Amino acid sequence: MSYVRRTARLPIKLLALPLAAAIVAGCQGALPGGVSRAPASAIAPSALSRQPREGAPLPSWMRFRPMAGTGRVYVSMFNFTNVNEYAASNKKNAPPLCAIPNQHYVNGIGVDRSLNLWVPNANASGLGFTAVFAPSCGKQLFTIADKDGQPASVIFDRKGNAYVENIYGPPSNLLAGNVDVYKVKTRHKVAELTYKDPHTYIWSDEALDAGGDLFVIYSDIYNKGHVIEFPGAKAPAKSLPISVGFPGGLAFDSAGNLLVGNQDTAAVSVYAPPFTGSPSATFSLKAASVPCRFNATRKNLYCSDFTNSSVDVYAYAAANPGATKYLYSFNNGIPHNANNAGIALAPAPPN
Predict the structure, then answer these.
(1) Bridge partners of 259?
(2) Which is nearest to 335 in space by CA: 53, 79, 120, 3?
(3) How far separated are the first and last CA of the chain, in Å rounded?
(4) For the segment 184-217, what is each residue's pLDDT rounded down to a tens digit?
(5) What is 85-124 written as a DSSP string?
(6) In this model, does residue 80 exceed pLDDT 70?
(7) Dihedral angle computed from the Cα positions of residues 86, 301, 81 and 55, in that order, rounded to the nearest 10 degrees
(8) How far apart are CA 76 and CA 19, in angstroms?
(9) I want to staple 331 with a disulfide (CB 3.0 to 4.6 A). Which of 9, 226, 283, 310 is the partner?
(10) Which of helix, strand or coil describes residue 198?
């Protein structure tokens, strides 16, 4: 498979696209402009996809695996309909502890302070909804319909807000992405954050710093990455002098440094506040990954490696980011060409 470049905006009916796989040719049928689209049915013949319908009683003989260590890792797969849950310390490549079925065209995912999992689903209309599940593949608690874009990422602040990023927005906004802000408890939408730049196109990821400022990485119509900041998580946004190739993910380390992923080079650049200078360090990943997420201590960085259908784990120290070291991977339960474009840690690190 090889990278292809998008050169034109697409009609809304074609917007069920993965953050990672949208730039990969040969996995699905090609669309005008060289973009790939997921098949009409994302269900694939795997053991994990052949699960009972949601809400069906479990067999009396079934037992669940005990927790192996502390923490959890959730992995979404755009080309399949499961979100897998793993023990965070999975050095022996154990299979998923459980899986949530029937989730469609999922990119980024997130875990809130109650350890509930938020799963943005997309549909062929270019819109979608976010489904919220109790911990450990628990019951579905509620859904939030998205009326102004295709949801593709979700993060949370310490004030009880959820930030659902839309990879694309509605035609009225020239299809540029946006971020919808909801109160977690009431599910009420309290804000919609947009950026009025004519070259804005795909919004790839988002991150919050300790001060509550929201950062978004997006690609322009020429597939170049840019970072914008919403001070105090409020509009208007300001552009930062950070440019990369096709954008990957964003994350903040324990020292408040901003990690910016570049899919073209499979590397991560680290910027110190106020993020206006050159990178203080750069380190390479084993392969291109859209999001990378820290564990609660921010000492391990988990990257969803869609190239190899795996999760790659790295040792990271904020005092010396350039010395980031690969530790191990796991891929048990992530099928080939899954396009695993989302990853979330439970518990997530505090903002």
Answers:
(1) 251, 270
(2) 79
(3) 37
(4) 999 999 999 999 876 788 999 999 999 999 999 9
(5) EEES--TT-PPPSEEE----S----EE-TT--EEEEEE-T
(6) yes
(7) 40
(8) 12
(9) 310
(10) coil
Residues with Cβ within 8 Å of 285's Cβ and at least 6 positions away in sequence, in order, are 261, 266, 267, 268, 292, 303, 305, 312, 314
Long-range CB pairs of 62-67 (<8 Å, 24+ gap) are 64/97, 64/98, 65/94, 65/97, 67/97
Cβ-count burial 98-125 (b if 16+ within 10 Å, e if not): bbbbebbbbbbbbbbeeebbbbbbbebe
Q: 332: pLDDT confidence band, cut at 50, 70 and 90?
A: very high
Q: How far apart are CA 188 and CA 13, in angstroms?
A: 27
Report the relative pairing of strands 247-252 and 258-262 from DSSP bridges.
Answer: antiparallel
Residue 125: which pLDDT band, with cuts at 50, 70 and 90? confident
How many CB atoms sit inside 10 A of residue 334's CB? 26
Residues in the chain: 351
* CA dihedral for 166, 16, 110, 55, sign (positive or negative): positive
Long-range contacts of 33-39 (CB under 8 A, 24+ apart): 33/6, 33/7, 33/8, 34/4, 34/5, 34/6, 34/7, 35/4, 35/6, 35/10, 38/78, 38/79, 38/105, 39/79
Report domain extents, the chain: 71-346
User: CATH code for 71-346?
Assistant: 2.120.10.30
